[in-house]
Design a protein that fits this description.
Elements lengths: L2 E7 L8 E3 L4 E5 L6 H13 L18 E9 L5 E9 L2 E6 L2 E3 L11 E4 L5 H4 L2 H13 L3 H23 L5 H38 L5 E5 L16 H10 L1 H7 L10 E6 L2 E2 L6 H23 L4 E5 L7 H10 L5 E6 L13 E7 L2 E3 L1
Parallel strand pairs: 3-13, 3-14, 8-12, 12-13
Antiparallel strand pairs: 1-2, 1-4, 4-5, 5-6, 6-7, 9-10, 10-11, 14-15
Amino acid sequence: MPFLSLTINNFRNLANKTIDISAKEVYFVGENGQGKSNLLEALYYSAYGTSFRTHTDSQIVKNGENSFAVHTLYMQEGGSLHKIDITYASGAKRIEKNGKRIQDRKELINTIPCVLFCHDDMKFATGEPEWRRFFLDQSLTMFNPLYIDDMRNYKKVLKNRNMLLKEKSFDMLNVYDVQLAQNGLEIQKKRKNAVFQFNQIFSALYEDISGIRGVTILYMPSWKEPPDTVGTRFPTVEDIVQLLEKNRSRDVIMETTMSGPHRDKVIFMRDGEQFVPTASTGQQRLIALLLRVSQAVYYTRITNAKPLFLMDDVLLELDLNKRQKLTALLPEYAQLFCTFLPEEPYERYKKSTTRIYRIEKGMWHD
């Protein structure tokens, strides 16, 4: 199992101590507000150097304190031991791996690959398009740190282009159009390929759990092929530059770039119609859950490695039948962490390798 121990200092309401998590499955059981999700957040923070609950690190600091730290000991597949130390103090974050400082968070991202299941995942089904774009981008960065560079470069060019549009300064727009097309097409190609591979996984899973056949993911890039080439080739940089020039008057009026990967859409289809608007709440929840399962399968197919699962009260949202089907269909994992309320039937899911902690007021005990 990758994570062996987690040492916490001033992280939300959690006790300042070390927890032994050297088990294949670890269950955190407790009432709401006791610290179960905080433990998952600390593990996620160790893996990615950021929280899944806030973009503001200062919100993580325990009340009355001015800094926090998480330290994790983990084991790689070959059996070698490693340590990650992350501290936050005076508004600055410091990340160290085996005592060596990491300057760029992308160096940490695929060290301990985690697939997170949480309540916000529902937005992948019902939220704004940016949530589905985020899901695709996260899936790609799990195994390809260079995709982070693609996104950073695109956002930098987009920001500069939008600034020129707002300032009515058009002299450099031609230069930025080329750069936007170059960087944006790289993102679009990778997203398109990811959706193609996700469909091979997701549709079958959805049918197995729900009995509903033919639910697919449709990627709708903002930049499309020229009308006379639809379905025959991928757009070129020249195609996109011409498109940007053609629509420049609209961008000038709106004072922002109205096309590009930041405007891509991802929708769920069935029988030629959008599925989510007519789907029940349970069917929508299942989309979100199975996207995460598909993310794990996708990662393993690409890397031949097994991710960790962090599951935050997500089984509670399914009826008992679907819950049993989902747990049976979970792909292989390196380690599994789950949170449960005391009244949930978590004993049904435990294995001989499972360790259970009861969580109360930020403290834990077997």
